[in-house]
């Protein structure tokens, strides 16, 4: 079973790897995430070579049903954050 890694865990790893304080590592990580979100919100794609691309994906409007009342509703078009991994990014499982 896989384990979730949280922002705090990444900041801790960064602080150890780069010999910086956890506070600085947290600030750097938060800055990076905020910049990605800001750029995507301005309809820009953020591509990290060798990792992948963050972009806004448009969802079309559609018809829906409220399950407990069976009332039909219109679901409006929306945008959502999407990520496409690069071709060179290979996820490797543990081979024992």
Summarize the structure.
The chain has helices at 7-18, 22-41, and strands spanning 46-48, 52-59, 62-66, 71-75, 78-85.
List the helices and strands and how they pair.
Blueprint: H1 7-18, H2 22-41, E1 46-48, E2 52-59, E3 62-66, E4 71-75, E5 78-85
Helix pairs in contact: 1-2
What does this structure look like?
With 96 residues, the chain is α+β, with helices and mostly antiparallel strands. It folds into two domains: 1-44, no CATH class; 46-87, IHF-like DNA-binding proteins (HU Protein, Chain A), CATH 4.10.520.10. It is built from two helices and five strands; from the N terminus they run H-H-E-E-E-E-E. It has a three-stranded antiparallel beta sheet with strand order 1-2-5. The protein has a two-stranded antiparallel ribbon with strand order 3-4. A hairpin with a 3-residue loop joins strand 1 (46-48) and strand 2. Helix 1 (7-18) crosses helix 2 (22-41). The chain is elongated. The protein starts with 6 loop residues before the first helix and ends in an 11-residue tail after the last strand.
């Amino acid at each position: 079973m896989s384990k979730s890694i949280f922002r705090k865990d990444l900041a801790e790893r960064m602080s150890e790897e780069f010999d910086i304080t956890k506070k600085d590592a947290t600030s750097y990580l938060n800055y990076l995430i905020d910049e990605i979100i800001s750029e995507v919100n301005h309809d820009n794609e953020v591509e990290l070579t060798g990792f992948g691309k963050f972009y806004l994906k448009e969802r079309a409007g559609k018809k829906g049903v409220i399950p407990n009342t069976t009332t039909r509703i219109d679901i409006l078009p929306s945008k959502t954050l999407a990520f496409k991994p690069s071709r060179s990014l290979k996820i490797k499982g543990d081979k024992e």
